[in-house]
Here is the input.
Amino acid sequence: MAALGRRVFTSAELGAVSARSCSVVSQGLAVMQRQGLALRLGHGLWSAGAEPPGQYEVVPHLLPKQRVYVSFTSALHLH
Here is the structure.
């Protein structure tokens, strides 16, 4: 997971960097979830660690084929 350089990732991305099949990656992530090392966010979407990621970390992964951004209002709220 560290090779991806971010906290939120897909099982397909992890499979690509680890050269493992999707099945092996999914099984490994399920074991890690039981141990509190990973958190399943949705179908094929995972987060490293037991704490849920921030909402702005997840947004780009919800619509991966579309450009997404944080609105000006949301950015002001964060600031």
Notes: Residues 22-34 form the longest helix (13 residues). The longest strand covers residues 38-42.
